[in-house]
Amino acid sequence: MKRWDVLVEVSPRSEIADPAGTTVERALRALGFSGVTGVRIGKAIRLEVAAADEADARTVTEQMCERLLANPVIEDARIELRAAVAPESSW
Amino acid sequence: MKRWDVLVEVSPRSEIADPAGTTVERALRALGFSGVTGVRIGKAIRLEVAAADEADARTVTEQMCERLLANPVIEDARIELRAAVAPESSW
């Protein structure tokens, strides 16, 4: 079993209102960042998982998204995987 | 001015406690995902920014992190940039 570094990005679906994102966008504009648009705020979940290969690691992560990490009615989940170079590594 | 798709990942610094991550890790184990370790939960902030080139887009995004998006005492910010292929694009 190899270790895999995983990033799960859980973001509000595009058709769902994101009041936190709207508020942050307004605040950035008020601070003078006039070129900013489309602010959306989601969760960035980092974890390590033990799996035989990358496909297996992805399958396990998808199951974790379905069971706990994301609510598919209002959220999209995007998964990034990378072989862990050392215990507790990050990238 | 080109448009740039930006992802800012704001995560709790490694020496800072992350009770939400600890709780999610315990819940994943309880659901049978025994190979999971090191769960940390941060924010995934997506936005578009107008800038002349990639270096300029990165500079503006770093300023937004310093001014509003991240608290450097307890959080790390990681920036990913990509040229926007179309208005409101995502990747």
Explained architecture:
2 copies of one chain form a homodimer. Chain A has 91 residues and is an alpha+beta fold. The first copy, chain A, has one domain: 2-Layer Sandwich (Mth169, Chain: A). Chain A has 2 helices and 3 strands, in the order βαβαβ. Chain A has a 3-stranded antiparallel sheet with strand order 2-1-3. The radius of gyration of chain A is 16 Å and the shape is elongated. The mean pLDDT of chain A is 94. Chains A and B meet through strand 1, helix 1, strand 2 and helix 2 of A and strand 1, helix 1, strand 2 and helix 2 of B.
Task: Provide the fold topology.
2 copies of one chain form a homodimer.
Chain A (H helix, E strand, L loop, with lengths): L1 E11 L6 H12 L5 E16 L2 H16 L5 E9 L8
Antiparallel strand pairs in A: 1-2, 1-3
Task: Tell me the span between the first and last alpha carbons of chain A.
Answer: 20 Å
Q: Extract low-pLDDT stretches of chain A.
A: none
Number of domains of chain A: 1
Portion of residues in helices of chain A?
25-40%
- Shape estimate of chain A: elongated
Helix-strand category of chain A: alpha+beta
Mean of all residue-level pLDDT scores of chain A = 94
Share in β-strands of chain A: 35-45%
